[in-house]
Amino acid sequence: xHPFTIPEAVAARVAARCGTPHPFARLxxxxxxxVVIDMQNGFMRADLAHALCPMAEHVVPAIxxxxxxxxxAGGAVYWIQNTFDARCETEWSIMQEMATPEARARRAASMSxxxxxxxxxxxxxxxxxDEVVRKYRYSAxxxxxxxxxxxxxxxxxxxxxxxxxxTNCCCESSARDAMMLNFRTVxxxxxxxxxxxxEHSASLIGFYLQFGDVxxxxxxxxxxxTEERDAA
Length: 232
Hints:
Low-confidence stretches: none
Mean pLDDT: 94
Strand content: 15-25%
Radius of gyration: 17 Å
Oligomer: single chain
Number of helices: 10
Distance between the termini: 38 Å
Structural class: alpha/beta
Largest sheet: 6 strands, parallel
């Protein structure tokens, strides 16, 4: 996947609306969570995947680097696991209707708890202080999706950095809903992966124009450092 660059015309529109092209360039780590979406074998291992995203493996080092920097600065890391259970058959039946019987069976086999596909990708730097959250919809923030919003608020976290896979489905869905639940929301451009560059770019641009900020891992880390220097 090629590096994403925000088009100048798009950045100008955001700057005109927000007064700056990057409204969340400064990050208070004590109020910030890295939310890593669906980095699981069921999306990343060809022999287990029900919806393979080959590019997801390539963003693992960037995610690990950002997770380490945020922990060191006093922030929190949440690993989100897409999960299938019996409720998906009834409470999210429309999603089931939109898939063939074979696709439904693959998803159930891959995403059910205890199955190899449900497990987080082994190269992720998951620490004991981090939290793991089960997710039952595309979005981790929508009603019925997970208890992530409540967990974040209980810890006084009001800013989320969204990484993971895929950019244009579960990452973008989570990011948009997070903003509409009043979280400051950043999509991490080189911490998200999609099947194609076109899908990745379109998703980030659509989100950036109205819902929040798009930053690289380096820009996020710089934003944490800026806030630390000001606090000192």
